[in-house]
From TrEMBL:
<dbReference type="Pfam" id="PF02817">
    <property type="entry name" value="E3_binding"/>
</dbReference>
<keyword id="KW-0808">Transferase</keyword>
<dbReference type="InterPro" id="IPR050743">
    <property type="entry name" value="2-oxoacid_DH_E2_comp"/>
</dbReference>
<protein>
    <recommendedName>
        <fullName>Dihydrolipoamide acetyltransferase component of pyruvate dehydrogenase complex</fullName>
        <ecNumber>2.3.1.-</ecNumber>
    </recommendedName>
</protein>
<dbReference type="Pfam" id="PF00198">
    <property type="entry name" value="2-oxoacid_dh"/>
</dbReference>
<dbReference type="GO" id="GO:0016407">
    <property type="term" value="F:acetyltransferase activity"/>
</dbReference>
<dbReference type="Pfam" id="PF00364">
    <property type="entry name" value="Biotin_lipoyl"/>
</dbReference>
<dbReference type="GO" id="GO:0005737">
    <property type="term" value="C:cytoplasm"/>
</dbReference>
<dbReference type="InterPro" id="IPR036625">
    <property type="entry name" value="E3-bd_dom_sf"/>
</dbReference>
<keyword id="KW-0450">Lipoyl</keyword>
<dbReference type="InterPro" id="IPR004167">
    <property type="entry name" value="PSBD"/>
</dbReference>
<dbReference type="InterPro" id="IPR023213">
    <property type="entry name" value="CAT-like_dom_sf"/>
</dbReference>
<feature type="domain" description="Peripheral subunit-binding (PSBD)">
    <location>
        <begin position="159"/>
        <end position="196"/>
    </location>
</feature>
<keyword id="KW-0012">Acyltransferase</keyword>
<dbReference type="InterPro" id="IPR000089">
    <property type="entry name" value="Biotin_lipoyl"/>
</dbReference>
<dbReference type="InterPro" id="IPR011053">
    <property type="entry name" value="Single_hybrid_motif"/>
</dbReference>
<comment type="similarity">
    <text>Belongs to the 2-oxoacid dehydrogenase family.</text>
</comment>
Amino acid sequence: MPRQVFMLPDLGEGLTEAELVNWLVKVGDQVRVDQPVAEVETAKSLVEVPSPYAGTVAVLHGAAGETIDVGKPLISVDAEGAPAAETYRTEERAGAKPPAVEVGEAADSGSGNVLIGYGTSGGHGAGRRTRKPRRASAGPQVRTTAEPAPAGPRRAPLVVSPLVRKLARDGGLRIEQIQGSGRDGLVLRRDVEAALAGSAAPEAAPAAETASARPAAAAGAAGETDPRSGLRIASRTPMRGVRKAVAEAMSRSRTEIPEATVWVDVDATALLELRAQLKQRDPDNTPGLLAFIARFVLAGLARYPELNSRIEDGEIVAFDGVNLGFAAQTERGLLVPSIRGADRLSARQLDAEIRRLAAVARDGKASPAELTSGTFTLNNYGVFGVDGSAAIINYPEAAILGVGRIIDRPWVVGGELAVRKVTELVLAFDHRICDGGTAGGFLRYVADAIENPGSVLADL
């Protein structure tokens, strides 16, 4: 039986590595095409990686907790026959369009699962999917490689990442003319960059410098003395996964977006009373406060659509609809799943989606599309017991609205002092897209809706 080596795929998120969380198979197990064999954690989600081969598991390349580079071996399978992704493997090696697959060909070799980019023959075909420029893919993209083919008169280049191909194409280079420094001649990004710079391709990294060796090296740094503070270093923890992605996004937001902030204190007493009345009538079907506020936010964005846009290549891109993101704190860090088409949903429907997506995010099952498709973000940091926050815009969006805790505070009502339920709304916005008049108008609209929810809900 031929042994097929399945490389860790490019998961379609512009990432170069992923952490191996858990193996779903063991050596000696029989696997079928499209059967999940491992769980890997990327910067955006926990992803099950399915096998493009059917056969017997021969080698598991790595242990749980290790970080594996894209394009490095993930699993080896003693295959029973030709893999469903063979035509796609040929396309990835040569950069050529894969041959068409006849209808009904290998009808029982796959399930049609298109999670991994090439599709199997169970109804979706093996054709390559086209990626739009500058758009995140809605699903992982898999690249596979079998054992190296014997050298011929013209050896096709090994290319795993479409980003590498695009970098070479944009630089006017032919990928087959670039000497790869990766395993088996794999062309890496550094090879293309070196070629563009007119220098020789860098030497391949030493074999000992693997993903599994990096954590050990980091741990070995513990105990040394920090020259700046003079204190002993207790540990060094590499930034990766969600924490690394959050750090990069926040840094880019602060660097590229000239943000401004406006805020207002709001009397939420009427909203709390309205919800209490609804809960008495229908205790099992009453939306949460965040769903009501979300509904008011969506109504405000309909009046001030500038805040539901982004800047892209020197243009302001406006959207027909709102994908409302909301910040969710999980064990893996802060995630922002988004409710697609939120502007078309009622408060009850919004509440259901908020609960569903929050649960999915906490379980690490949110898809990259659910975590990257937002156009405006709502952040309820009041759950942490704080009143306000100078929020950072969720790049590349144009604004983020934060809601603080609701507490008893003295408030003037009808010329007399009273105790009311008060919260603080904070809006951070991209000052390139709009000015204070638009931001203030939106914030005041949402505040008025919270203070007089009945009149606003009647128009929604």
